Amino acid sequence: MKLTLSLLGIVGGSLLTLAMMNTWERPPMASTQLGPRGLGMVEIENPRSAEKLKALNKALVSDPPATLSGIKVKDSPDYKNVKLLGDLDVEEFNRLMGAITAWMAPTEGDNADCAYCHNVEDMASDEVYTKTVARRMLQMTTAINTTWKPHVQETGVTCHQGVSKPLYGVSMAKDYPELNAATP
């Protein structure tokens, strides 16, 4: 009986170890203290995946500025249910929607391009959940860029480097397996 329990424990422990190693990052890790000493604010980074992460965090290429039409979105009969960006010029609005689509939306599948956030049969509809999320993200970005000017300076914040899920705050192993693959 003891031998059976011991073998069962060894097999179970081995299986748990193998499962854990799928997402485990081996030492050494680099740590950088952030903020005042004693607050426990430390950024921990795996130096073996830092270059891969840096490549994913490259700056996005912007479209050229829009040629203004002089018509605001809120005054145009073509746009309905624009709750947040109604003060933009129609051309600026279209440029922004195109940029968000290029940065965030998949290029293939049922929810490709505009369909990622919109019901393409009724663009004013709020039935697609990602439209509601995108609207809240735009509200947050606007609030940060206006209220936190001393912190964000003239750079501001943008959509999380053009990926639909931000690189930080997600499971790196699950959502970005290319970062963990072939890490020596």
What is the compact description of this entry?
40% of the residues lie in helices and 4% in strands.
Describe the structure.
This protein is mainly alpha-helical and 184 residues long. It is 40% helix and 4% strand. The protein contains 7 helices and 2 strands, in the order H-E-E-H-H-H-H-H-H. It has a two-stranded antiparallel ribbon. A hairpin with an 8-residue loop joins strand 1 and strand 2. The radius of gyration is 23 Å and the shape is elongated. It starts with a helix and ends with a helix. The relative contact order is 0.11. Residues 169-173 and 179-184 have low confidence and may be disordered.
Taken as a percent bin, the fraction of beta residues is under 5%
Low-pLDDT residue spans = 169-173, 179-184
Could you tell me the radius of gyration in angstroms?
23 Å
The tally of beta strands, per DSSP, is 2
Order of helices and strands: HEEHHHHHH
Label the structural class: mainly alpha
Strand order in space, largest sheet: 1-2
Report the total helices: 7
- Beginning-to-end CA distance, first to last residue: 42 Å
Mean pLDDT: 80
What share of the residues lie within helices?
Answer: 25-40%
Please give the largest β-sheet.
2 strands, antiparallel
User: Quick one: overall form?
Assistant: elongated
